[in-house]
Hints:
Blueprint: E1 5-7, E2 10-12, H1 16-21, E3 26-29, E4 32-38, E5 41-42, E6 45-46, H2 52-68, E7 77-84, H3 90-101, E8 107-112, E9 123-130, H4 134-138
Helix pairs in contact: 2-3
Amino acid sequence: MTDPRIVRGRVAGFSPWEEQFGYSRAVAAGDYVHVAGSTAWVDGKIEHEGDPYRQTLAAFGVGLTALATYGLTAADVIRTRMYITHVRDADEVGRAHKVLFDASRPAATMVVVEGLIDSRMMVEIELDAHRVGLANSLEGTGT
C-alpha cells in the first residue's frame, strides 16, 4: 500500500483499482467520511485466503486506516456494510465485526453477493463515519 494521502477531501493510495476505475478510498463530505469498498488486498496481495474471519479483520483494517487519515477511529463509525460471497461465512464475518465495533454498535448490513473482483476475496466492506466539527478541522489543510 502506498502512503494514504488527502487531496481535496479524498484519500487514495490503497489499491490499483482506485486509479484504474477512477475512485477514492475515502471521501469527506462535511462532518462525514465515506469509505469505499475495502477488501483484504494489502501491499499488493490478498491476505488470509480462505479465512473469512481474518479477511474481514483485514478489510476493516484497510477501511479504518483510511479513516485514520482524517483522525477518525472505529468509535466514529456510524454505518458498516459487509458483502460476503457465501452465506456460510456470515457468522465468522459477523464475529469479526463484533470484535471491532461491539463498543460503538454502528448500523450494519450484511449481504450475500455472487462474487467480488477477485475470486479469492471472501468479503468486502464499506464504512461511513461522522464526527461533529470534522469539516472545520479539515479547512485550511488543502482538503
